[in-house]
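Convert to structure. Protein one:
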Amino acid sequence: MNYEVRDCIDAGSEYCPCHLAESGECILCSQLRDKNFCDCINWKGVCIYQEFVWNGQKAKEGRKEIQCVLLNKEFIYDDLALFTISVPHKLAKELTSPGSFVFLRNPISDHFFSTPISIMDVNVEENRIVLALEVKGIKTKNLNLINEGEKILVRGPFWNGILGLKNLYKSKDGTSIVTTRGIGQAPIVPVLKKLYANGNKIYVILDKNPYKDIFIKKYLDLYNCELITTTLIDENGEIASEFKRILLSILKNEQVNIIHSSAADIINYNVLNLIGETIDFSCCNNAKMCCGEGVCGSCSVKNKYFDIERSCKLQIDPRNILEGRRLL
């Protein structure tokens, strides 16, 4: 039976209904998927169809770019910088949850230079966000041209940087495992904060490659994480034997309530295969984000039922996405 628990990250928010409703492809509302009956999935207390009609049968206004200020740019390595940006208070509050991200753009550049970056930390009192920027391609090099004190365009909030958020939120008063590699360290900070607030003992299995050191060390100490450093993946793209031994040892000796993986999809997939169906799982959403609004199709993936999913908005169990993807 092709059944999966689906949700839309924007449902019930000020950004719903979106452009998917206009084209008859709403994730949740059956009547906005060209059906002639009402069969709501994951009722949010708001009728999406009614909101659509009341809004003149068109999408709500989407996220706008806001002109903000780059307060600090700190290079940890030659190609890794921490950007601290001053943002409006409302936006800062909306970016505190795990999986939050924004699009950044240099004001001198065209709109297609807009770059999605995960939120690493938020200071709501001072209205500041911190992001880790890996300076590699055209877009990130363009962002790196911005100097401290200059304007930077921020578009957000976006929230679907993690698949399996429901699993993450319900994990309480147990033992949680977080695995990460490289730049994947940055988006696990809000995850650690949430798991710590939920009373969990947290193991972090971390592969610092390709960096020389761990750039989130202060957060690991802040949230009382037990850090284990190792290599996650071997040269063949398979789980490294030492990592496998460590993970299985923790699973054997602890009552683990969730495993969160923040790495490339091939690593997320292999971790999922290793743990099977017995433990809740969440992972970073490594889709190729482009517009963030479900329109461009860059984030489209096939699930295990061979349906096309827009992963910039769809919240779903990661198993239903990773098991159907061609990763190499």
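Protein two, convert as well:
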Amino acid sequence: MDKVINGDCLIELSQFADESVDLIFADPPYWMRVEGVLKRPEGTDFQGCNDDWDNVFQSNEEYKHFTKQWLTECRRVLKKDGSIWVIGGMQCIYSIGAIMQDLGFWFINDVVWQKSNPTPNFLGTRLNNSHETLIWATKSAKSKYTFNYKTAKELNIDVVGYEKGERRQLGSIWKLPVCSGNERLKNINGEKLHSTQKPEQLLYRVIAISSKPGDIVLDPFGGTLTTAAMSKKLGRNYIMIEQNREYIQYGLERLEKIIYEDTKIAKAEYDIKPKKVSFQEMIQLGYFYEHENFYLKNTLFSAQLLKNGKLSYLNHEMDMHSLAAKLKQVKSERVNGFNFWEVERNGKRISINIIREKFRAEHP
């Protein structure tokens, strides 16, 4: 675990055991196919991604062949309940997506990374290129992949327009800045080291919501080891493959400074399912009382609690979820009785869920 391998991903991946990694993040060559010179508005040349590793392909067929090779290996080494994220620009992401589906990957989401600080337009000849696309997929439609749903909601609390402290479902458009400032690695001459270095925030989010502590995260195009850095920060194991020694050298220097952060996000605590609680046990220990009244919130309906944990209403015995659904005239699968029934304590009505949480705290 926690390896950085200097080598060609196709050769190195062939050495991996079948179904040996939990999560894959892949940032493959985009093959930008940019012709001519792009000018910034002030007249200077924009280099973009002109690295050798992005210009080795002679045709679309050659690029697709390479893509199919590395994706085939990734699918082989991915665990049956693992998942893979692949990022790309407009030049490549559609080819990659089609090949993934041909190979049997099952798409969960496509995510748009909206860049909050994109490179400005070039003399106004086209729209500002302000996003990249990520594909999130599993090995098959039957994969029971990790998705830390509540963790994702916690990572979504700073969205403009939400009430303070409000948690809402994370959507598929992520507005994050491109890598810049001190985060951008530079070589000995002060030039940016890697043209497409991804921001730490992006990898932090991907790893936090789609893996568990101790999982193995693979990046077959490791670059400057951002995936390794965020895996280490979140308490995941990592395996990086990168063929450029200079990227590895600077990436390792950054990696040494990263420490694990013992947070609820890192531990995915928000998504740990609480212990199941038996009503009979809570009755036996005096948290609820046999024959006490249960009141349906914001209605005049009430029922009596029985020793077996069910409710008696008009001489009919039902579980509290089904009875709440019946009285509210909604489908039973939509109703969690703990959110709808109240009991009296000290002259006031309180939710039975509060009592259940008190029981859980006192009887872990």
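The longest strand covers residues 78-88. The chain has a mean pLDDT of 90.
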